[in-house]
């Protein structure tokens, strides 16, 4: 497979991982959208090259970002990254044999908590997804799901007891998503948990989980282990989901009311005419 | 209280968590940032285990490394029934399969780190070694089933089963499915039914 010709996918910012994983002087091989890349950390910055050309580079939020095309917008805003009391936790890249869009959609889903993250993010006695709101914010081209609530036996590494967690979800680009969630120790603020997906090939992705959290008690190892536990519980489900590419064709998968954010996400991907990581459609003219 | 130096995604730590739970032993854990932090290669951890490997288990002044050795210690110290580490003609066979679990079967662990966490290494070679080990275990379990046996050694589960189960169950993370190993599948179902069984990320309870 070689570089995709999907314009909508090319014109986006993608992470290649945490900056700390690119040591000075070393050349690191990576891959994005079906094309091999080399990354070199230099004294005055980072160089990303593919097929003999240098690609644009950004280094915001502790991560390395690049693009093959010309993104319409700058990288998303993350104001919480400027708050001095937040812990920055890089949970490490995990490779998943699934479309990156499947990863994002799973991240947006509340309904699986009791069954996949049993007795942690949900319990089978409380499976209901309460009504929440979704909106497409056209000024920033982001999707938001707000007023989400869920009963969680162990909402975070620092939890001693169950709580009703409040959530907001924010999709900032097709492969980058984050959630805002009530920290057990600071109910008036929001923890930020981000999933930056590096789409390697159509059905192979690298997931970079990154947290900006309020927590004075847990060690870095505990915070990272909690998030890795959650994500690897999802991994086995994602890798067994069929089709592994996200279907956008009407009727291929049937949403319920709890899937409101997924419905909006798929509509938004269609509006962008994104194809990378989606199942080929047979219902379009000239498809 | 006994203390396990633990990493949530480690199949070797899972061996110890499994037996601790099945024997009903209370213990505390200390999370070690194995990935991405490589805390197990830092001086503080190397002082505990100069090999720089997980798990490490502290119990009444003892500091033990190696999952198989820790299983032996737990069975020897906490299992009054003697079922998990039998001191009779079965002892040698249990030891033989423990060595296999800590040896040949660990090719799955190596392949898993490459496939899942992008560690350097030769994935195809390790996958081939892993398949050879799984074939051997599947043939053994098929022979056992022919003779009416459910477990790797003898008529009851032993630490040979506990040491072998985690990486067999996690092989999908290494890109190896279970479809070619029917006797292993039957045996896995038996292990999952044992009182005190717990899963881990990648070994869900809903199977």
From TrEMBL, chain A:
* A Pfam match: VanA_C
Q: Recite the UniProt keywords alphabetically.
A: Oxidoreductase
Query: What are the TM regions of this chain, as residue ranges?
Result: none
Q: Does the keyword Plastid apply?
A: no
Q: Which residue numbers delimit the Vanillate O-demethylase oxygenase-like C-terminal catalytic domain?
A: 97-271
Q: Which domain of life is it from?
A: Bacteria
What InterPro entries would the database entry show? Cholesterol_7-desaturase, VanA_C_cat
Keyword Iron assigned to the entry: answer is no
Q: Tell me the GO molecular function terms.
A: oxidoreductase activity
Looking up PANTHER family in the UniProt record yields: 3-KETOSTEROID-9-ALPHA-MONOOXYGENASE, OXYGENASE COMPONENT (PTHR21266:SF60), IRON-SULFUR DOMAIN CONTAINING PROTEIN (PTHR21266)
What is this protein called in UniProt?
A: (2Fe-2S)-binding protein
Automatic annotation (TrEMBL), chain B:
Q: What positions does the domain GST C-terminal occupy?
A: 87-207
Please name one Pfam family that this protein belongs to: GST_N
An example molecular function term from Gene Ontology annotations: transferase activity
GST N-terminal domain location, by residue? Answer: 1-82
What CDD domains does its record include? GST_N_4
Q: Return the PANTHER family for the record.
A: GLUTATHIONE S-TRANSFERASE-RELATED (PTHR44051), HYPOTHETICAL GLUTATHIONE S-TRANSFERASE LIKE PROTEIN (PTHR44051:SF2)
- Protein name listed in UniProt: Glutathione S-transferase
The species this protein was found in: Devosia insulae DS-56
**Lineage of the source organism?**
Bacteria, Pseudomonadati, Pseudomonadota, Alphaproteobacteria, Hyphomicrobiales
């Amino acid at each position: 497979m070689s570089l995709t010709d999907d314009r909508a996918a090319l014109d986006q910012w993608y992470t290649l991982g945490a900056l700390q994983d690119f040591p000075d002087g070393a050349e690191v091989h990576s891959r994005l959208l079906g094309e091999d890349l080399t990354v070199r950390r230099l004294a005055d910055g980072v160089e990303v090259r593919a097929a003999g050309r240098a690609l644009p580079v950004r280094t915001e939020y502790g991560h390395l970002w690049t693009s093959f095309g010309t993104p319409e917008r700058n990288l998303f805003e993350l104001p919480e990254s400027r708050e001095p009391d937040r812990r920055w936790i890089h949970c490490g890249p995990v490779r998943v044999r699934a479309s990156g869009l499947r990863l994002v959609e799973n991240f947006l889903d509340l309904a699986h908590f009791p069954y996949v993250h049993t007795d942690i993010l949900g319990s089978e006695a409380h499976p209901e997804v309460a009504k929440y709101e979704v909106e497409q914010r056209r000024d920033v081209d982001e999707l938001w799901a707000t007023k989400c609530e869920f009963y969680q036996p162990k909402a975070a590494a620092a939890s001693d007891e169950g709580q009703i967690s409040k959530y907001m979800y924010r999709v900032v680009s097709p492969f980058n998503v984050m959630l805002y969630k009530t920290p057990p120790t600071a109910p008036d603020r929001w923890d930020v948990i981000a999933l930056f997906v590096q789409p390697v090939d159509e059905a192979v992705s690298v997931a970079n989980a990154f947290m900006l959290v309020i927590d004075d008690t847990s060690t870095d190892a505990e915070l990272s282990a909690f998030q890795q536990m959650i994500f690897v519980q999802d991994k086995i489900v994602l890798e067994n989901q069929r089709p592994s590419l996200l279907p956008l064709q009407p009727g291929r998968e049937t949403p319920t009311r709890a899937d409101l954010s997924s419905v909006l996400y798929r509509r938004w991907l269609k509006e962008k005419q994104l194809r990378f990581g989606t199942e080929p459609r047979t219902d379009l003219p000239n498809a | 209280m006994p203390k396990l130096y633990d990493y949530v995604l480690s199949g070797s730590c899972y061996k110890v968590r499994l037996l601790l739970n099945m024997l009903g032993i209370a213990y505390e854990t200390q999370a070690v940032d194995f990935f991405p932090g490589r805390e197990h290669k830092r001086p503080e951890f190397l002082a505990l285990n100069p090999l720089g490997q997980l798990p490490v288990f502290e119990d009444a002044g003892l500091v033990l490394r190696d999952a198989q050795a820790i299983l032996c210690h737990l069975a020897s110290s906490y299992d009054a029934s003697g079922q998990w580490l039998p001191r009779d003609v079965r002892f040698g066979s249990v030891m033989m399969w423990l060595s296999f679990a800590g040896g040949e079967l660990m090719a799955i662990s190596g392949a898993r780190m490459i496939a899942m966490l992008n560690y350097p290494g030769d994935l195809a070679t390790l996958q081939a070694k892993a398949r050879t080990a799984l074939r051997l275990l599947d043939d053994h379990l098929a022979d056992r089933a022919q003779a009416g046996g459910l477990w790797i050694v003898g008529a009851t589960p032993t630490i040979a089963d506990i040491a072998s189960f985690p990486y067999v169950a996690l092989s999908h993370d290494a890109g190896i499915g279970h479809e070619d190993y029917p006797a292993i599948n039957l045996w896995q179902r038996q292990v999952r039914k044992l009182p005190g069984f717990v899963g881990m990320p990648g070994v869900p309870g809903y199977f």
